[in-house]
Amino acid sequence: MSPFVCNHNGDCDEDRLCCLKTEMTLTQDDIRRIESLGYDRDEFVHRAQDGFYELRNIDGHCFFYDPSSKLCRIYEHRPEGCRYYPVVYDARADRCIVDEECPSRSTVSDDEIRRICHGVRTLIRTLVREARPVE
Predict the structure, then answer these.
(1) What is the DSSP letter of 25?
(2) How far apart are CA 99 and CA 128, in angstroms?
(3) What's the alpha-carbon Rg for the chain, to the nearest Å?
(4) DSSP strand E in 28-126: where?
(5) Other CB atoms closer than 10 Å to residue 6's CB: what's the count?
(6) Rounded to an integer, what distance in angstroms lies between the CA atom of residue 9 and that of residue 12?
(7) Can you give the residue ranges of every domain in the chain?
């Protein structure tokens, strides 16, 4: 997983913070892991029109984001995509990149991107396999 650690230094604004207006896609393993903490999937999962399962946003931020502390309430159990972030997959370029919107992006080296990319690609394949179109 990524050695990246969010700096929580306040450089993120409402449009740039990864936990705000999130579109984090969830695997079935993510959902089960979070449910094992006592959360009901109907509270934190949103089913997108394209069939992917995503973290629900509440008041414009991730369900698990605590605005007062600016921390994730389930950080040790967070979804796999959150663990890889800010390394993301650019489908058009068919490669892994660092999300340009992340203020801490400079802390991720090219070596780290290469090391993490296999996991990101595997995650993408899992998400596509698990997506079910909404009827």
Answers:
(1) E
(2) 20
(3) 15
(4) 45-47, 53-55, 57-58, 61-62, 65-66, 71-72, 87-90, 95-98
(5) 20
(6) 8
(7) 25-130
H/E segment holding residue 64? none
Rounded CA-CA distance 63/35 in Å is 13
Q: Where are the alpha helices (DSSP H) in 63-109?
A: 80-84
Across-strand partners of 90?
95
* Counts for the chain of helices (H) and strands (E), in that order: 4, 9
Tens-place pLDDT, residues 5-53: 565 555 555 544 667 777 899 999 999 999 999 999 999 999 998 899 9
pTM confidence score: 0.83
**């400079």: which residue's tokens?**
106
Residue 36 neighbours by CB under 8 Å, 6+ apart: none
CA distance 43 to 46: 8
DSSP letter assigned to residue 106: G
| Cis-peptide into 133, omega within 30 deg | no
Residue 80 φ then ψ, to 5°: -60, -40
